[in-house]
Design a protein that fits this description.
It contains 7 helices and 7 strands. The protein is of the alpha/beta class. Strands 3-2-1-4-5-7-6 form a 7-stranded mixed beta sheet, with helices on both faces. Strand 1, helix 1 and strand 2 form a beta-alpha-beta unit. The protein binds zinc ion.
Length: about 240
């Protein structure tokens, strides 16, 4: 158990996003003994649900939630909050931002991790880019709503949506890599669970996720990694620049 135990909140657009994009990092925080809360802004009814085409919406919602909870259990998380903002498109209305802000005020995370890159300059990324921009703009610092204001110490954005990113000149380069060598298997298992993949697809998705983690790891000189950029909101005081 870590002595400097933290509260960590991970926010994704769709229920499977925290696992696919930052699942290794999530499991690392659980292993460390941190309090981890997962948040999905939508039920993701329009993504990874092809196998439920034709089913009633209530059944799709129940199934998606159940599969996501199974995935959460695999990475060791019990606290998974399902917001219901509606996906594809996810829209950052004032009401939605206030709901997310109040959730942050309630959970009071030390560290906030987006499951997506914000694509601030280009508006790219679809629901994912919107979700990330909501993470950085949700007004958890409000003080006239009866809740104690709260600002996380840092907000981290991962390096995902690789092809879009690599092609865009304004995309920032990841500078921080989480070593996920000991949690990569959990990440893969969680993805298989949340996407409800049939057995014949398990090896393929494992190879894909392992290959991506290895590629990111090579950039940092370790075996397997998930890449992030340093928080824009973090402030560091130094005596001299170095
Ligand atoms: Zn997604």
């Amino acid at each position: 158990m870590a002595t400097d135990k933290m509260k960590v909140m991970i926010v994704g657009a769709h229920p499977s996003d925290p696992f696919a994009n930052v699942g290794g990092t999530v499991a690392k925080h659980v292993k460390r003994g941190d309090d981890v809360t997962l948040v999905t802004l939508t039920y993701g009814l329009e993504v990874h649900t092809e196998y439920l085409i034709g089913r009633p919406e209530a059944e799709i919602r129940d199934t998606v939630r159940q599969k996501a909870m199974e995935a959460a259990a695999i990475v060791g998380v019990e606290d998974f909050r399902f917001l219901d903002f509606g996906d594809t498109p996810l829209v950052a209305t004032r009401e939605n931002l206030l709901v997310l802000g109040e959730l942050i005020q309630g959970v009071r995370p030390d560290v906030l991790i987006s499951a997506h890159y914000p694509f601030r300059e280009t508006q790219q990324g679809g629901d994912h880019g919107v979700a990330a921009r909501m993470v950085e703009t949700a007004p958890s610092w409000r003080y006239h709503n009866g809740k104690e204001p709260h600002r996380p110490k840092s907000i981290w954005f991962p390096y995902t949506d690789n092809l879009l990113a690599l092609r865009h000149p304004l995309y920032r380069v990841p500078d921080t890599y989480v070593n996920i060598a000991d949690t990569l298997d959990q990440k893969i298992e969680a993805c298989i669970a949340t996407w409800n993949l049939p057995p014949e697809k398990h090896a393929g998705i494992g190879d894909l996720l392992r290959g991506m983690a290895a590629e990111h790891g090579r950039a940092a000189g370790i075996e397997y990694a998930e890449p992030f950029e340093s928080p824009w909101l973090e402030r560091t005081a130094v005596e001299y620049l170095s």
